[in-house]
Each structure stands twice: as structure tokens, then as C-alpha cells.
Design goal:
- The chain has three domains: 45-122, Immunoglobulin-like, CATH 2.60.40; 126-157, no CATH class; 159-192, no CATH class.
- Helices cover 10% and strands 40% of the residues.
- The chain contains one helix and 13 strands.
- It has one helix at 2-21, and strands at residues 45-49, 53-54, 58-64, 74-78, 81-87, 92-98, 102-110, 113-122, 131-135, 141-147, 150-151, 166-170, 176-180.
- A five-stranded mixed beta sheet has the order 2-8-7-4-5, with no helix packed on it.
Length: 192
């Protein structure tokens, strides 16, 4: 019995020692929290506007390099063609370029400091400033305008009357009826 107690105490002591030596935050092999061994890699920010981008529009590609990106003759490329080279740390670069229709990849690389952005250039749906008839969400007649190569949402004209309201109206010289405003507010029914 005495040997059993000794073994239990020794096993308990080993278990406590292992728990104290285990890195905080999880599994015994989880060493990624040790920032001395692997410092965080800086990440540049890439963006493109307008979004969505349509054919015949100029794309503005923006690269914001954090100060901790190492200067190593980094370059900004699109579809493997250099747009800007020899960028230094802490740079803010804006490049304007006409991009053909299709899928494209913009990337930056300088040592461990990397970023990539994939985007599509869509066909222009409509010429700017054109309009067309449409139905809004209620099923009412409206007008749609084109801006930036994209049709905007359908807009119904201002209502002429409050939808579904009734007003008295003369049927003949002696009798009265009611006219009802339609569900869109665009006009009155015949007098009934």
C-alpha cells in the first residue's frame, strides 16, 4: 500500500510539472504564440476602386505599405506586369490604369511582406445617363437610370394620391359614387 501511495504522489508531481511547463493557450505543441521565434509578418493593404469596375473605366489601385515592411525592391504588379517598382516602407502608392474586361490579379511582394487582390472587370450594362421603364418592388411603373455602367434601382414617380384611398365622385346628376386610388398612388379608378 505504501508503494502505491508513493507512485501516486510521483505521478501527480510529474503531471503538475507538465502542466506548468505547457505553453498557455492550448496544446503542448502550440508554439506559435512565441513572438521571439517568429515575429509577425507585416501585411500591406491593397484596394481597388470603383467597385464594381466596368469596361472603359479607369481603375484606381491603392497600396498602403506599413513602416515595418522591409525595403527589398518591392514591386506592385498586375497580371505579372510591373505597375510600380522600388517601393519603400511606409509608402502610399496610388496607380490609375485602364483595365480590359475579365479577371485580373494585382500583387505586391517584398521579402516576407506580400499582398494580392483578385478582381473582375464587368461589361458595361448600359451607357451613363440613359433611362428605361421598369417595375418597382410593389409592381408599380417607374424609371431606372444608368450610372457608372450599372442600372440603379427602379424609382416610381411621386404619388398623385394616397394608395387605396376613396373619394366621393358624381355618377350622374343625382347619384354619388366612389373613386379609388390605385395601389401605386398613380391615379384614380373610374367612379362607381
Amino acid at each position: 500500500m505504501e508503494n502505491c501511495t508513493r507512485y501516486t504522489v510521483v505521478l501527480f508531481a510529474i503531471l503538475i510539472a507538465l502542466l506548468l511547463l505547457m505553453p498557455k493557450g492550448g496544446e503542448p505543441n502550440d508554439y506559435k504564440s512565441n513572438s521571439i521565434l517568429s515575429p509577425p509578418v507585416p501585411s500591406p493593404a491593397l484596394s481597388i476602386s470603383p467597385n464594381p469596375l466596368h469596361e472603359n473605366e479607369t481603375a484606381e489601385i491603392r497600396l498602403d505599405l506599413p513602416a515595418d515592411c522591409a525595403y527589398a525592391a518591392g514591386q506592385l504588379s498586375m497580371d505579372a506586369k510591373t505597375l510600380h517598382a522600388s517601393l519603400g516602407p511606409g509608402s502610399l502608392i496610388t496607380v490609375q490604369v485602364r483595365v480590359p474586361m475579365g479577371s485580373h490579379l494585382v500583387s505586391f511582394e517584398s521579402g516576407a511582406c506580400k499582398a494580392a487582390l483578385q478582381f473582375d472587370v464587368l461589361p458595361q450594362a448600359c451607357p451613363d445617363g440613359t433611362t428605361r421603364a421598369c417595375l418597382d418592388a410593389r409592381g408599380c411603373n417607374g424609371i431606372q437610370s444608368c450610372r457608372g455602367g450599372t442600372w440603379l434601382s427602379c424609382r416610381a414617380p411621386a404619388p398623385l394620391c394616397a394608395p387605396n384611398t376613396q373619394v366621393p365622385c358624381p355618377l350622374d346628376g343625382c347619384h354619388w359614387g366612389k373613386a379609388t386610388c390605385d395601389h401605386c398612388g398613380s391615379g384614380w379608378s373610374t367612379c362607381r
